[in-house]
Give the backbone structure.
Amino acid sequence: MSYGSISFIRKKSDKSLLIKGESVVLSGKSGIGKSTLFKIISGLYPYYDGVVKVPKFKKLFLSQNAYFPMGGLAHAVSYPEPLFEKDLTVIKQLLFDVGFSSENIDKNLLNDNLNTLSGGEKQRLVIARILMHKPDWIFMDETTNALDKVAEKQLLKLLQTNLPRSSFIIISHSDISDYFNKCYQLNLS
């Protein structure tokens, strides 16, 4: 992978892409290579030149189209871990916290009905999954792009409030830089 140049817009003046506990947003025009850079940073794409140090902490990688296993809302939140009955109370609260109605939670908690969910509801499930697993490093590739701006900002704030020691790398087309320590704008020249 090569770029003519990458320009960085920084809120802080250090040289690291990401320091533990910080949040970074990567933005740029469609097709510029944000997702490829994301895959390289996250260690999911081995075909590049250079050195990338991937943290050796609990990580969660979420793509634009997150995978959901067979089962209901609870299975989607607990994934990739198995669902245990003891976790159902916590999962119900997380689903409520990310914006699911009590009626929707009760109806679909264990029912295999995820194909009827909207894009925004699926992205809310992803946020609940992050909150359930509490990873140290969270890599999100446009996982809030189906949410309206108000919901997106509320859920990002929820993540940062509940996971203050976690590090986030997020690819987004939205202007969400107020919620991040650093904003990197990718440009080709």
Notes: The domain at 32-48+57-149+185-189 is CATH 3.40.50.300 (Rossmann fold). The chain has six helices and six strands. The chain has a mean pLDDT of 81. The longest strand covers residues 23-28.
